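Researcher: I've been going back and forth with a colleague about how Delta-aminolevulinic acid dehydratase might be arranged in three dimensions. Neither of us has a model we trust, so I'd like an independent prediction. The organism is Actinacidiphila polyblastidii, in case that matters for your notes. Sequence below.
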Amino acid sequence: MTGTYGEYPGTRPRRLRTTPAMRRLVAETRLSAAELILPAFVREGISDPVPVSSMPGVVQHTRETLRKAAVEAAEAGVGGIMLFGVPEVKDAVGSAGTDPDGILQQAIRDVVEEVGDALVVMSDLCLDENTDHGHCGVLDAHGRVDNDATLAHYAEMARVQADAGAHVVGPSGMMDGQVGVVRAALDAAGHQDVSILAYTVKYASSFFGPFREAVNSSLKGDRKTYQQDPANLRESMRELALDLAEGADMVMVKPALPYLDVLTKVAAAVDVPVAAYQVSGEYAMVEAAAANGWIDRDRTIDETLTSIRRAGANMILTYWATEVAQRL
Ligand code: PBG
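Model: Here is an independent structure prediction for Delta-aminolevulinic acid dehydratase. You can compare it with whatever you and your colleague have in mind.
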């Protein structure tokens, strides 16, 4: 069939998609290794790494294998590492989290010693990895998470993590006032140079499911009295204003892919770096579909990360950080 159809197509956007070289030239968003942050789990009392079954390819590290993973990440050019500790003994108040020799503090010291010049070393500042009930705070007499009592524990965690050498602490418990309390505690202990990456916008998400296995959590129920309702966007802007006023150096949106609209709005509103956390469930979905041959794994990974960047993230926490950095 030949012929013309009026004036169409008068304009041809396809010209800029003709070759790989042309597409590369006109790409508006690029990934680089330096903006990737590797979340990593270290478990006390094990002699070999333990695979996390719901996150194929992710393990609970021993202190030794964590050192190796940190070196591998640094050599690949990854920008940072976010450490999570899984203590052998958990109790009602999460004592391992405030113990200067708790597993997370030991791991921070190990990683800073190993790669502290090459990687920004970050630590999760939350009680849930350390409590026997699995909540992010301590409980009151009625079993409710006690905001203000929890803040005292966070202040102590901030101090021991910074003493261990953390460059950045990441308060992730969604307690009101946590960023201000952590900043004050750091400053009082002489840690003015330790930064706060605030988990500012954190939703009560089913996408955190596999993480529970990764930290041996015994949580029953949910975190809906402190994490945000996925239905809300305006509320995120309120959390953002509070965290900035309390002294957040960087802010985070979490999870990432289901909340790109939130990420875009946050990124447009602030003048601090914005991180997005591609969480355990986002990782698991892609790995599971790829294992079934239903999607192209590497293309899907790159597409999700590119989309998170395009939406406005300066930094991305992803369990694929090292692999993607090696590929870039
Ligand atoms: C809290 C914390 C969680 C995650 C990171 N920090 C769990 C939660 O809040 O329920 C989830 C990360 C992931 O799912 O990959 N310490």
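Researcher: What would you highlight for our discussion?
Model: I'd start with this: Residues 124, 126, 128, 136, 172, 208, 211, 223, 279-280 surround PBG (CB under 6 Å). After that, consider the following. The longest strand covers residues 36-43.
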